[in-house]
Amino acid sequence: MTDVIVKRSDLNSGILQEYLNRKTIENLDKTCKFVQFGEKPVVQSGYNTIRWAKFTRLDATNVSDISEGTNPDGVDFDATSITATPSQKGIVVKLTDLTISNTVIPFLKGAAERIGVAMAEKIDSSIQATLLAGATNIKYGPTFNQTAENNVTGSDIATGAALAKWYAFLKDKGAHPFDGDGSYVAIIDVPTYYDLMSDTSTGSWIDTSKYATPNKIFAGEVGKLFGIRIVVSNNITTHPNTASTPVTMHPIYVFGKGSYGVANWQNMNIMISPDQPSTSNPLNLYRTVGAKVAFGSAILQQDALLIVEVAASDIS
């Protein structure tokens, strides 16, 4: 039997490509918090716009009493469409030949991991921007106690009791829950999570380990309170208000099922330049690792989305 020793020079680019693709996708799944909750339509090849149909809402006021032998009058019923178009994002990392000549795998692996994190953060940030720019239900202060963003003070931090109001707001709007027990979801940042955990009145907190179905936990989910499942992200975009003493606003995204959609035109694709000279790199002085993706997002149900802007404790 021949004793085969596999050397680095024996590895082909296809094997390396497969490894990097798997690794980057793992990072993307672990980091993204908003993508998992979006409605995801199938985008047909060749189309640059995706449309979601939204039917007119019918309620009890549209139902009539029937007099014997007489049909009720017809009621208006129509549909509107909500559209999204793709936005392409990309990133490229260049590695010099001297950087990778002695330790090829560690440097390419590190680049792939960081690319995955950066892409995930960009996707999440883009979805947040869509929601914040288009939402009609934006409230200020934890219990909607302020009338404008500039009225929010440093003491307007999230409390356990505030979640009960958020739940009641969506329930009253008729937002569809995410599970059989009627729960909604809130995505919060780390300082806001700290404030909730520091609230001594948060006595009804249910840890994920105590869920009846712990196998159905969302990425980033830490527990449930007053009918709202809490997901924590360290990638929530904050901004200062324009008060005379500016306060940093920490948006909290509270929503029901189907509140927004995320359409994918192009799966995230990893590209590695070949280890050979080219017209732009005649001396083969570097190799590149890059990624690109094309996606779009849109609000589908305004009454299923609530954004609450609050202050938060300084945890630095």
Topology:
Layout: H1 13-31, E1 50-55, E2 79-84, E3 87-96, H2 97-100, H3 104-134, E4 138-140, H4 160-173, E5 184-189, H5 190-198, E6 206-207, E7 221-225, E8 228-233, E9 239-240, E10 248-255, E11 260-272, E12 286-299, E13 305-310
Parallel strand pairs: 4-13, 5-8
Antiparallel strand pairs: 1-2, 3-12, 5-10, 6-7, 7-8, 9-10, 10-13, 11-12
What's this model, at a glance?
The protein has 316 residues and is α+β, with helices and mostly antiparallel strands. 24% of the residues lie in helices and 28% in strands. Strands 4, 5, 6, 7, 8, 9, 10 and 13 form an 8-stranded mixed beta sheet that branches. A 3-stranded antiparallel beta sheet has the order 3-12-11.
Index terms:
alpha+beta; hypothetical protein PF0899 fold; eight-stranded mixed β-sheet; 5 helices; 28% strand; globular
Descriptive notes:
- With 316 residues, the protein is α+β, with helices and mostly antiparallel strands.
- 24% of the residues lie in helices and 28% in strands.
- The protein has helices at residues 13-31, 97-100, 104-134, 160-173, 190-198; strands at residues 50-55, 79-84, 87-96, 138-140, 184-189, 206-207, 221-225, 228-233, 239-240, 248-255, 260-272, 286-299, 305-310.
- α1 runs parallel beside α3 (104-134).
- The longest helix has 31 residues, at 104-134.
- Mean pLDDT is 86; it is low at 3-11.
